[in-house]
Amino acid sequence: xxxxxxxxxxxxxxxxxxxxxxxxxxxxxxxxxxxxxxxxxxxxxxxxxxxxxxxxxxxxxxxxxxxxxxxxxxxxxxxxxxxxxxxxxxxxxxxxxxxxxxxxxxxxxxxxxxxxxxxxxxxxxxxxxxxxxxxxxxxxxxxxxxxxxxxxxxxxxxxxxxxxxxxxxxxxxxxxxxxxxxxxxxxxxxxxxxxxxxxxxxxxxxxxxxxxxxxxxxxxxxxxxxxxxxxxxxxxxxxxxxxxxxxxxxxxxxxxxxxxxxxxxxxxxxxxxxxxxxxxxxxxxxxxxxxxx
Length: 293
Hints:
Blueprint: H1 3-12, H2 17-43, H3 48-55, E1 57-58, H4 61-65, H5 70-73, H6 81-102, H7 104-128, E2 138-139, H8 143-156, E3 161-164, E4 168-171, H9 172-185, H10 192-213, H11 220-234, H12 261-274, H13 281-291
Antiparallel strand pairs: 1-2, 3-4
Helix pairs in contact: 2-6, 6-7, 6-8, 7-8, 7-10, 8-9, 8-10
């Protein structure tokens, strides 16, 4: 099977959102590297600025109105190797946790909403705060989306532990806290726009999980648009099925039945014996639904 076939297969699966996000970031990075190499050979300069002008978010609102697609394209754009390396590693580690517990659709929702929240805070800061006014800038990178996923995972499972080299097991709530503090401390280090976007993503990740636990899915609009776009690309119309005669009332959209107390007690006993990591995906989802108000 060719490389193109592998890519096509990866995007044809509906349960492969994490790998698709990773792959899109990697493909855009490779395309930018190849473009820079061609431009350097031709002109003596990589000229990445020409591309960034059209796929990165400008700080000037009027320019942004002429490039609305950058609200999404910026979150898949990297130029520096270590920038994309750390973003993709964190996306894989924390995204795997969110995907396992909440599923593909909510993972994509957090990624997209984190990117949008990062843009909103970035634009507000660069157009309202005196320290940034008059400093044209562009925003690019998946960091806001990745930080949203990190904070969402930490809000969802604060005591889940990752083993870090030279440090050992660390609860992810502390990892998320360090990520946020580093962004705050780095505001005066030359990448203020990126750090501000990180904070927007962090706020979104926290609010998303809190609202989800309260029974409200902030990502519903993202999922609706995604379904619509997916239908256009696949060429398959969405069918509505109508049942005649009596039937049980349908559950409210976005809700799932609460698990029985006996099931929860069994799951809690399993955690006490073997730890949280021993739970199956179904058991983790039941525990999450039970925590919703």
